[in-house]
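Module 6 notes. Inverse folding takes a fixed backbone as the condition and produces residue identities as the prediction. Think of it as a translation problem where the source language is geometry and the target language is the twenty amino acids. Below is one complete input and output pair. Work through it position by position during the lab.
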């Protein structure tokens, strides 16, 4: 019965291909828009997660004052004893890197480039998941003595040295010179548009002695173990520094501990909300497509009134007529759904390539979008089909 109705529906729809195509177009656009929006949104979310992962896994920033990001805060700076206290008293910590930084102009021969100069230890490379590209990291003796050595990011290597080997070269900055002992593997831009490879790194003791003139520490990077709970580590850090800075319970702290996991969660939530909103907006076109199907089916019932009368007069049951028109509506919406899936995948793949984000396909969204398009066909095709099935044979045969 259903197969016969399907064959009759296909035969009827083929009689007017232009009208069939235009009727299915609304559903096609709706399904394609939903799939494209969700796929692009999920790709953007994955791109954000990948970029933030390049900062380091389970990374926490401890900064003085209540600043809004890593850097020199308004509060009392940290000391080497603070760093030692973290290492000795906080469990689940993989790396602790005291850090300070300042903008500078780096020069080699006739080439100059504005960049970021950071002073830190080898723990910084571990916390930030940097890999050495060529040369080496700092030796223990260089860290202790404050030697004039530095490691360069790939952007600086390209801008100053072009195709030449920078190892052993003497790099000049605003206030000091340093010998290049290593270069870092490139990371590219992060989610916030910052070039992670545009930096010069030198031993913290060198930075403090040559630039700051003191032993203050502007920021401490703490990398939690992979199996550790970064939230617990953050709470332990807050408790430790409240005790060390003699801040009583309930009083406002003069330091801030920021957890990258919270940033990732916040950005993922924002991305999910935006993706859901755009998908909901796109789904409205599916309803518009359903209304178009109902309109065309009503027109089809009117045009085929005499045919309906003849079928009922020669013994067809009302449910047979109902099934025929209902199947026609489902074929219209199903055709639009299938074409919409293909269009949505092509569109999302194209946009992902243009935006340079991962191409993510969620099979569940494809199934749901197609299922919803079929549901639209049933819902909006039922009223015209019921109207056709409710006709009286004699009245239908008299229709001009």
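Target side of the pair, the amino acids:
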């Amino acid at each position: 019965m259903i197969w016969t109705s399907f064959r009759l529906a296909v035969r009827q729809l083929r009689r007017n291909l232009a009208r069939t195509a235009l009727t299915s177009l609304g559903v096609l656009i709706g399904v394609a828009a939903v799939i494209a929006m969700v796929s692009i949104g999920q790709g953007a979310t994955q791109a954000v997660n990948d970029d933030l992962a390049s900062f380091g896994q389970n990374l926490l920033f401890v900064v003085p004052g209540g600043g809004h990001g890593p850097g020199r805060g308004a509060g009392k700076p940290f000391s080497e004893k603070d760093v030692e206290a973290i290492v000795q008293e906080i469990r689940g910590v993989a790396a602790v890197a005291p850090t300070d930084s300042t903008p500078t102009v780096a020069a080699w021969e006739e080439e100059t480039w504005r960049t970021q100069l950071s002073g830190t230890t080898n723990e910084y490379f571990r916390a930030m998941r940097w890999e050495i590209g060529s040369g080496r990291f700092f030796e223990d003796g260089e860290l202790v003595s404050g030697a004039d050595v530095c490691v360069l990011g790939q952007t600086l290597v390209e801008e100053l040295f072009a195709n030449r080997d920078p190892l052993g070269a003497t790099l000049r900055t605003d206030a000091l010179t340093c010998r290049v002992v290593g270069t870092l593997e490139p990371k590219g831009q992060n989610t916030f548009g910052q070039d992670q490879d545009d930096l010069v790194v030198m031993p913290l003791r060198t930075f403090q002695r040559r630039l700051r003139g003191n032993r203050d520490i502007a920021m401490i990077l703490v990398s939690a173990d992979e199996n550790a709970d970064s939230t617990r580590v953050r709470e332990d850090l807050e408790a430790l520094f409240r005790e060390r800075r003699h801040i009583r319970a309930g009083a406002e702290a003069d330091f801030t501990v920021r957890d990258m996991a919270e940033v990732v969660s916040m950005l993922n939530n924002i991305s999910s909300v935006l993706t859901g909103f755009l998908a909901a907006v796109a789904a409205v076109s599916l309803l518009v497509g359903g209304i178009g199907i109902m309109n065309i089916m009503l027109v089809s019932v009117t045009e085929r009134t005499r045919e309906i009368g003849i079928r009922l007069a020669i013994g067809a049951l009302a449910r047979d007529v109902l099934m025929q028109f209902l199947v026609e509506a489902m074929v219209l919406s199903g055709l639009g759904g299938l074409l919409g899936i293909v269009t949505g995948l092509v569109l999302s793949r194209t946009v992902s390539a243009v935006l340079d984000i991962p191409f993510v396909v969620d099979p569940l969204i494809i199934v749901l979008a197609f299922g919803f398009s079929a549901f639209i066909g049933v819902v909006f095709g039922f009223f015209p089909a019921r109207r056709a099935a409710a006709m009286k044979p004699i009245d239908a045969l008299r229709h001009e």
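Reference fact for the lab report: Residues 77-253 form one domain.
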